Every structure is written in structure tokens, then in C-alpha cells.
Give the backbone structure.
Amino acid sequence: MTQTSISACDHSVLERDALRLLCSVVIKPATRVEFCNSLSPVVFLDPLRRVVFEEIHTLGPIASKRLRELLPARVTNRGFPDFEIEELLQPKEVNEGELERLFASVLRLLEIVAEE
């Protein structure tokens, strides 16, 4: 399956879910860094989500709580004054099934990177 075979809506969901996982307390900072090093910003088609990913990547292996504290100001400074991290991370509670879906989103974006 190629990137073009994914609808824009489905791709948007993949991006959002990947960012939710990267900001989550369920993965260790080192794991977040590994995911970020493997992903490319170009797989994030939405400009806001691309900037959020770039900032997550730039911040490196910090605790997710600190990451979520720093992101709003950093994204605002990159030209998105209306950025609301809480809106991006909704829903905040993640059950086991949803966690699997979030990981699957990151894996699918990794496949897209490999296809390019």
C-alpha cells in the first residue's frame, strides 16, 4: 500500500494518533526519541502537526509531562498562536485497545517513510 492509497482523513488520524502516543506517559523518553529519529517530518502533511512533531523531536528525551508543558509555547513561537495541546491529545484517557491503535499509527507512518 502506498501513501496515495490512504485517504486524507485516514492520514490525518494517523498523524494525530502518532502525536498522541509521542506525548503519552506510556512510552519512555528514549522510546519517543527512537520513534522520532525513525520518522520524517514530511509524513506529517498537516503544517501544525508537522511543527508539533518537529518540536517533540527537538526536545529530545524529556519526561512527557515536561514535554506537554513546553510544547504550547514552542508551537506558538513557530507561528500557531491558537495551538491547544489539550485539544490535540483528546481523549486523554487511553485504554489498551486504543493504545494498540496509537502504536499502529506510528508503525503505519514508519511504513510510509520507508516507501518514500
Remarks:
- Residues 29-115 form one domain.
